[in-house]
């Protein structure tokens, strides 16, 4: 269940780029150098110059022999790998350990058609943009006190004051579960277990989650999403042995990625005061495009994998695709006025992130509220990135803000 993800179809995004080329059109070869391994510490800390080097390679899929995988870095290649689900399969495993190696299958993202359609439809009606819009009041109630306190204090650690508590409160309400504060740590541990060389601490934290879930899931509120998933979802499409992992997948994916969307987005705005000024002048008009640009500029999910029947493993680098200069003009610049809708931060194709509408609603509501209340924001010394190989984000992000 390590790094369990979620997915869904989004017709606008999935169909926007036309049909995928046949797999045979991809050019692959090897480059015998450690410098092309995306999981070295140097490349995890400073990924974007490295991603530019990968995109400049002549091959569509760049082989990293010492890791026995290929890397997709250009936007068109990443998009087409994600969309060609017949060749580049999710059902073999999208995490560092294949399904065969781990013995576990993340219900939503590690299934291929036709099973994929069955499991997706078991929860899809509760995750559409229209259904999520009904949570607006829930999100507003969660955002307001957090922003009030943050502004009153003149700032604080963005991660502990805003980024972690907001999705935790919203997911608790939506799922109908009393999620403890530790749930954010458990979600982060799960993503780490889906990446190479996970630390022992991640296994320990995830073990804590499994112990809690045995009792915590049993306390699901009547009528909540958690109760419905445990009852096998819409029209009882889930098999009995899928329900636990399905609910865990929704919980995990709904926390960690949103946490780091918020942290990365705050840092991007604070580092580009002219962009924050645009947002401050028109919060209602720019909050949504600002969030799309945050997702493009510094995607929280570093990668997912696809595998082929002939034994290839492809690491799809979302952050590399999102800085592709052939798709996004001046890609290393943060600009909230740009059309960033082609970003791949939520994936593409039939496995496009199921939780995307909720993550967008939470982030747009939060950044609109901050823009309405603040004259300025800045990151203070002491900000530290997380060392996760799966997620790009901040462990701590101290900030100072000035109220209007």
List descriptors.
404 residues; alpha+beta; five-stranded mixed sheet; three-stranded antiparallel sheet; 18 helices; globular
Give a short synopsis of this structure.
By secondary structure, this protein is an alpha+beta fold. The protein contains 18 helices and ten strands. Helices cover 47% and strands 10% of the residues.
Description:
- By secondary structure, this protein is α+β, with helices and mostly antiparallel strands.
- The chain contains 18 helices and 10 strands.
- Strands 1-2-3-6-5 form a 5-stranded mixed beta sheet.
- Strand 8 (384-385) and strand 9 (394-396) form a beta hairpin.
Main-sheet strand order equals 1-2-3-6-5
SSE topology string = HEHHEEHHHHHEHHHHHHHHEEHHEEEE
Low-confidence stretches: 1-26, 28-33
Instruction: Please give the radius of gyration in angstroms.
Output: 20 Å
Q: What structural class do helix, strand and pairing data support?
A: alpha+beta
CA distance, first residue to last residue: 45 Å
- How many strands, which pairing sense, and closed or not: the largest β-sheet? 5 strands, mixed
Q: Look at the structure and give the mean pLDDT.
A: 92
Q: In which range does the helix fraction lie?
A: 40-55%
The total strand number stands at 10
The fraction of residues in strands falls at 5-15%
Q: Report the total helices.
A: 18
Question: What is the molecular shape?
Answer: globular
Set down the secondary structure blueprint.
Blueprint (H helix, E strand, L loop, with lengths): L10 H5 L12 E3 L10 H5 L1 H10 L4 E4 L4 E4 L2 H9 L15 H4 L12 H7 L7 H5 L2 H17 L2 E3 H6 L1 H11 L7 H11 L6 H17 L8 H6 L12 H29 L1 H9 L1 H15 L5 E5 L5 E5 H4 L34 H18 E6 L4 E2 L8 E3 L1 E6 L1
Helix pairs in contact: 8-10, 8-18, 10-14, 11-12, 11-14, 14-16, 14-18, 15-16, 15-18, 16-18
